[in-house]
C-alpha cells in the first residue's frame, strides 16, 4: 500500500507519465511558427532570431514528447509559442517600418519636385 | 544516523530550500523590467489587451518562482512572460507606426494630387502656347495667302497693261522678266522718260510692289552706233526706269538695281528695222531667291 502511494506521488510530481502532449497544443504552436515565418519573410535581425528560437524549441519539445517527458515538452512548447508570437509581431513591425519609410521617401521626392 | 544528525539534516535541507526560494531568477528580473516598461509606455494605450496578457504571464511566473521546487518551471514561465511583454511592445510600436503611416499616406495622396494638378497646369500652359503658336502660324499663313492672291492679281493687271503696249511678261527659272519696248518709254536717243512712257510704267508698280522679289532693271540697245554710246545710253535708261520705280512705285532702293547691257542678248535681228526695234528695250527682272 505504501509503495502504491509513492508511485502515485511520483507520477503526480513527475513527467505526467500517463498523459501525452495534446495534439491541439502542438498544432497551435506550429500555427504560430508558420504565422511568424510568413511575417518575418526574408527579414533578418531579432525577428529572424526569435523565429529560429521558436523552431529550435519546437523541435526540442517534440523530442521530449517522444521520450515521454510530457511536462517538459509542454513547458518548452510554451516558450516556442511565445518566441513565435514575438517573431510574428517583430516581423509585422519590420514590414510596417519599411512601408512607412517608402511613403516618407515618396513624400520627400514629391516635395522636391513641387519645390516645397 | 543519530537523532541529532537527523535533525541537522532536516535543518540543512530546509535551509537549502529556503535559500533557493529566496534567489530570484534572472529571467524573472528581466520579465519584471519588461513588464514595467510596457505597462508604463504607449502600449498601455495602444495595446491594453496585450499588456494584460503580459501581466497575467508575469503573475504566473511570479507564482511559479515562489515554489522553490519548481525552479526550472519558474524560469521558463519568466521567459514566456518576458516574450509576452516584448511582443506587446512590438505591437505597440507597430500600432504607432500604423498611425504615422496613415497620416503619411494622406500626405502622399495630397502631394500626388498636387503633382497631378501641377502637371496638368503645365500641360495646359504648353497646350495654350502651342495653340497660340498655331494661331500665329495660321494668321501668317492667311497673310501669306492674301499676299499671294494680291501678287497674282497685280501680275494679271500688269499682264493686261503690257498686252496693251506690246510688252511681255515671261516666267523663267531665273525669275519673271518684264520686257518693255524702248520706243514706248523713251524718245529716240534719249534717256529720260516720255510722258507716255511714264504712264506705261504706272500699271506695273502694284505688281512690283506686291511681288517682293529683288528687281534688276536692264537697259538694252540695238547694235547701231558705237558700243560706248550704246552702253552709256542703256545704263542711263535703266537708271531712269529704276529711279521712277523707286519714286513712284515706292520700292525700297535696296531692293532694286540697274545695269546697262548695250547691244547684248539681242532678241531681234539687228539687220532689220523690226528686229532693231525689238532689241531697243528695257527688261525688269524679278529675281527668284537663290535655291
Task: Give an overview in words.
The complex is a heterodimer of chains A (116) and B (291). Chain A is an all-alpha fold and 116 residues long. Chain A has a single domain (21-114), classed as Substrate Binding Domain Of Dnak, Chain:A, Domain 2. Chain A has helices at residues 2-13, 23-40, 46-66, 70-114. In chain A, helix 3 (46-66) packs antiparallel against helix 4. The longest helix of chain A is centred in the C-terminal third of the chain and has 45 residues, at 70-114. Mean pLDDT of chain A is 87; it is low at 1-18. Chain B has helices at residues 3-22, 26-40, 43-46, 48-66, 71-164, 195-211, 227-249, 273-279; strands at 168-171, 175-181, 214-220, 256-260, 281-287. Chain B has two domains: 3-100; 150-287, OmpA-like domain (60s Ribosomal Protein L30, Chain: A, 2-Layer Sandwich), CATH 3.30.1330. Chain B is built from eight helices and five strands. In chain B, helix 7 (227-249) links the parallel strand 3 and strand 4 (256-260).
Q: Could you tell me the mean pLDDT of chain B?
A: 85
The second-level CATH architecture of the largest domain in chain B is 2-Layer Sandwich
Count of alpha and pi helical runs of chain A: 4
Provide the domain count of chain A.
1
User: What fold name goes in the CATH topology slot of chain A?
Assistant: Substrate Binding Domain Of Dnak, Chain:A, Domain 2
Classify the helix fraction of chain B into a percent range: 55-70%
Please state the CA-atom Rg of chain B, rounded to the nearest Å.
Answer: 57 Å
Shape of chain B: rod-shaped
Helix fraction of chain A by DSSP (H/I, runs of at least 4) = over 70%
Structural class of chain B: alpha+beta
- State the shape of chain A: rod-shaped
What's the gyration radius of chain A in Å? 23 Å
